[in-house]
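Sequence decides. Consider this:

===
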Amino acid sequence: MSGDGPFERDEDLRKLLRPGARTTPEHDDAVLAAARTFTDETPVVRPSRRRRLRLVIPLAVLVGLAAITVGLYARFGGPLKDGSPLRSLSNAPSEAITPANGTVLSEPPAQFHWPAQAGAKAYRVILRDASAEVVWRSDAVRVNRASLDARHAATLATRTYYWSVEVDGAATTRQLGPFWFRVE
């Protein structure tokens, strides 16, 4: 054989025959012919590294998207519907959310108010500064409003703040917001 197959010479193929086996030269020639035919007609196909990566990368992306979907499903207790309060809060009338999203205030708000959520057992307001540091966290309340005490209100400087509401339900906790306001 010439060097275009995996075996350079017939001697390489003969080494594969059982050593010490009593065979006839005709048998050996038939085995070699079959091996030559097999190696000539059936090339060893091995996907290139590039081709393997083209298969692995999309698979990894799909697995990642599936994990995100499962995480969101677990976080929000089910699929988000277009009319759900969680989605529609950003379109809620400004009087339904106090302080209204994007409001500029001369002093810190005394009270936070949001639309009541079906199945809510308790609410908790979380107030963060622009660097996402928690500035204040309310105690759990059963109604859809919470008051910022004067001691914490006095610590709020002139800047932008973000607030959100944790809604504790029967089996899950979800979040409303974030909403923002600025104290000037």
Notes: Residues 78-88 have pLDDT under 50 and may be disordered. Residues 10-41 form one domain. The longest strand covers residues 173-183. The beta strands are 103-105, 111-113, 122-129, 134-137, 145-147, 159-168, 173-183.
